[in-house]
Amino acid sequence: MASQRPNQLFRNLNAKIASIPMIVTALFVFVGGTAWTVVYSFTSSGLLPRLKWVGLDQYDRLWGTKKWFVAIENLAIYGFCMLALVFVIGFILAALIDQKIRFENTIRTVILYPYALSFVVTGLVWQWILNPEFGIEAIVRGMGWQSFEFDPLYNPEIAIFGVLIAGLWQGSGLVMVLMLAGLRGIDQDVWKAARVDGIPAWKTYLFIVIPMMRPVFITTLVLTVTGIVKLYDLIVAQTSGGPGIATEVPAKYVYDMMFGASNLGQGFAASTMMLLTVALVVIPWATLEFGGGKKHG
Predict the structure, then answer these.
(1) Is the dihedral of CA 230, 236, 240, 246 positive or negative?
(2) Number of domains present in the structure of the chain
(3) Terminal alpha carbon distance of the chain
(4) pTM of this prediction?
(5) Residue (of 164, 212, 224, 162) closest to 184 by Cα position
(6) Could you list the mean pLDDT of each consecutive 10-residue stretch along the chain, which spans 297 residues?
(7) Whose C-alpha in 114, 131, 189, 293 is 20 to 30 A from the C-alpha of 137?
């Protein structure tokens, strides 16, 4: 065993040497930047960063600000609804396309196309679609239903759901593709055995196929959650956080504090809280995916 270790160390040596700049850059930019942000969240940095320690004052101010609570509440509503609906929609679309339907490539491309658009474009498109003057409401009223109302972006109580519609439109295509890849990876013998046993299709999906797609679901969950936490472009393009602060989200709060209010310390504190949110998802996922694989002897 000892004689094999040097050989393994020098295996693919050129590739390992070539990866050194990337590793150093990652450590410097990501790890260093993260540490820098956390450290300066305990300072009174204003327009410029400065090491004047104030302890947990920035966090006390953060959690005492109504705008931050609204941002957290919106993120929770958007995140919960997004996760539930995008998984259901994406899986149903994938299951339908997996039936070897005609024009599969065309349909798959059309559904995935919104994901290729930037969030800014998506936000602007759905801002127009949901505009009561020339959007869905105006079209339906033009058909004769004068009492019809559909202007979620102009109602503070439900404005975040107007943003959710745009998010689902863009994100469902990616989830569909990931789920479809998982379904195509299921052995056909599983389906044949289920048919022979007389198991209904919905039970086959629910009790056999979905448990077998666990890695796909976990990967999709991580990608979706990280996208939810850093939600910013869509909000700015679609509502700019309005009406009032009805659609504020943490990422926009960070931007407003750092570049609008010139309060870097407050922005760093909010960034750190966002980092903790992502870590609560990524660390358990990494533990489940990579921690269990080393238990074999």
Answers:
(1) negative
(2) 2
(3) 14
(4) 0.85
(5) 212
(6) 55 76 84 90 91 93 94 95 96 90 86 91 94 91 90 93 96 94 89 88 90 90 88 94 94 93 94 88 75 51
(7) 114
